[in-house]
Amino acid sequence: MFSGIIEGTAQVVRLEKEGTNLHLTLTTPIAGELKIDQSMAHNGVCLTVVDIQGDTYTVTAIDETLKRSNLGDLHVGDKVNIERAMPMGGRLDGHIVQGHVDTTAECIAVEPADGSHVFTFRYAVAPELIRRGYFTVDKGSVTVNGVSLTVCTPTADTFSVCIIPYTLTHTNFCDIHVGTKVNLEFDILGKYIARLQELTAK
Predict the structure, then answer these.
(1) Diameter over CA atoms, the chain
(2) Within its chain, how far is the Cα of 78 from the centroid?
(3) Residue 24 has what DSSP assignment?
(4) pLDDT in tens, 17-60
(5) Cβ(23)–Cβ(60) under 8 Å?
(6) How far apart are the C-alpha atoms of 3 and 12, rounded to whole Å?
């Protein structure tokens, strides 16, 4: 489990396809602190560390992960938001994040707001997805590229988030512009409520 509080970014240094899998090798100052089999979130996707070499480490994304996320669109040199799993008893500074990306969204606007920036995203909606809790609510939580954020002005298929300068410079939000594809994980609490309503309605 994660909290959506990004530790920093890692830079992609190598991409290697093996069948339908994609091996991603990244460099980060915390590589020496990692362990084999450790879970880490990459742009919000929980992946397992499979190799460590000096200041680089490798994780593997399967086909299902690549279809649901933006990891398959990465290039060498791209920055990825990373977070290690939350320790038992640690503070939940963001919200409950599973590291299971639900879908992607497209950035449709970036606007300055008195020193901060408002990013607006659009995602595909369908009745079956809404029934599963894949939607946003005003002042609710959403994870964008692994970052725990508060939803503003949601519509049927869009929402906005306000990004403070610290988040802009310490995550890959600094590289997000109109047309950029990002990963979304909707709030797990909303999914449970949606599932409960579905079961009790039968």
Answers:
(1) 55
(2) 15
(3) E
(4) 999 999 999 999 999 999 999 999 999 999 999 999 999 999 99
(5) yes
(6) 23
